[in-house]
């Protein structure tokens, strides 16, 4: 049983991850927009400040320290006339670190409070500000020296003014002391005529958060939380006006009189919150947030389901009472129609519950691009699209490893070293583009680069060395592209932490095909694109299937892969020069395979008693599938089958039919790939055997 503390920890981890995804998006907008950045900086400051406060409450000191150092830099940037590019780059690295820290928390491996990686990053952030300030001082000193040479009196006056400047001011007034004293002093000054700026509002919120961290007992902490809640309500409803100032002054007066403080440590008593070694994220139970509207819709459908159940009970009683058969048939037909409609509504409802945005997947991939590019010392930019696309949670888990592998390959293999790009006339930096989009009942994920493209000659040589191609065999580009998905094939001459072992793409394609999807490759000297196509969900799938009979068994082809069915005659089959069979359809030669031969290994009867061919299109390929009979279209629940051996993901799973039998669900795309390797040429050989017998 999961206790309340574990639930709170999981909630903290989830909120922190979402906060950092938002922060990463805001920072990207700052990078892309060099004009008015102050609103973005303020929003980024708010997000990081929220993360710091939550981390302190859960005693995650490493996260808190790094967030606090980031706050310092963001506060400093808001005072600058421009945002240096090196500051944005360092902040991006810092957010990447924070995301990694939260991921490690979720996996039960929190960073130590004194982690040297945090120390190093905090030092980098401090050095950034110090170096820039030193440069600013040097620039001012040089300017003053020039002015002093021509205007001695003005130089003296400027020096006097510089001595009067104070380092910290909010709302035009000097602020000193503890957070409680700072707030009291700030609220004691007259309100600005043009109202409080957003920076002032953020500063007040920060002070309230600091007070919560410094509270010495539960009563003080509770009063501060009440003040924070009231502050948020006032701010959202009426804004920062005199009423809000009076409210805060009353709360602060009570806190000053009765509050207990511990100013030396800006965190709560460790006895009230997770202990070291407790392992935030130690619970292995997976959770996800669900919008309340989804639950309400789902419950409404459950109510309708009860009504349908009552209708079936009524029909059962009518059967037992020997009711009129015609009326009974009509009632049963209406009940079945209502039940089918409700089943679809329930399916859509529960699928909506599992939907999450693709932003997290894309943000992680973008961080990986930057990390590998830095490791490879390559100048690479990255852009993403489809952040708002909603994906099934199971898809995100499935896509994580393939996207990681493709992104690493894009930076390591696809993008040339900077010197080579310049020699070939390409611009710097290189660019990698990733995105997610929706098409019909599918999700499409793309990873593309503007690098050198796949080295077809190197692939051919590696394939011949492994015996995948004959030494004198001429192959087209698509065949060579298929070779990169073979286990153990690698064109790298060295093995590194990133690549070179020949392991990865074969597993990528296998996992995707097992989920009913496919991966395609487009390549040229201007770059390479990997395109992954998957069904909208890979857990419980309800699909529309085209049912056929082959070898005496029922087989299902997903309807999205079926275009039409045609009569079949073995005499219409002809062979390509390499012996692979084709069928003439609408003036074009279409690859033809015998399903009976592939599934039942029945070469003798293949094509002899199969009067129908199903014309399929999948993954950009066409294939004609010879079957014995068409049985119709039906919605089925696709379930995994682990007890049968299958060829390269040909069998997607099984479906339990109404008569209690199980039908195999196949992937027509895999049938095409079997044909390309001449594993389905038995139809032609059967025809030839018939000719031999007649002779």
Q: Could you characterize what this model shows?
A:
There is one protein chain. By secondary structure, the chain is of the alpha+beta class. The chain has five domains: 1-133, Four Helix Bundle (Hemerythrin (Met), subunit A); 169-259; 292-353; 356-535, Heat Shock Protein 90; 541-694, SH3 type barrels, CATH 2.30.30.40. 52% of the residues lie in helices and 18% in strands. It has 21 helices and 20 strands. The strands form five sheets. A six-stranded mixed sheet has the order 12-16-17-15-14-13, sandwiched between helices. Strand 8 and strand 9 (527-535) form a beta hairpin. The longest helix is centred in the first third of the chain and has 35 residues, at 116-150. The radius of gyration is 33 Å and the shape is flat. Mean pLDDT is 75; it is low at 164-176, 264-284, 494-498 and 680-695.
**What CATH architecture label of the largest domain applies?**
2-Layer Sandwich
Distance between the termini: 77 Å
Count of discrete alpha- or pi-helical segments spanning 4 or more residues:
21
Number of domains: 5
Largest sheet: 6 strands, mixed
Cα Rg = 33 Å
So what's the CATH class of the largest domain? Answer: Alpha Beta
Q: Which residues sit in consecutive blocks of at least 5 with pLDDT less than 50?
A: 164-176, 264-284, 494-498, 680-695
- Taking strands numbered 1, 2, ... along the chain, how are they ordered across the largest sheet? 12-16-17-15-14-13
Provide a compact summary of the structure.
This protein is 52% helix and 18% strand. It is an alpha+beta fold and 695 residues long. The protein has five domains: 1-133, HPT domain (Four Helix Bundle (Hemerythrin (Met), subunit A)), CATH 1.20.120; 169-259; 292-353; 356-535, Heat Shock Protein 90; 541-694, Roll (SH3 type barrels).
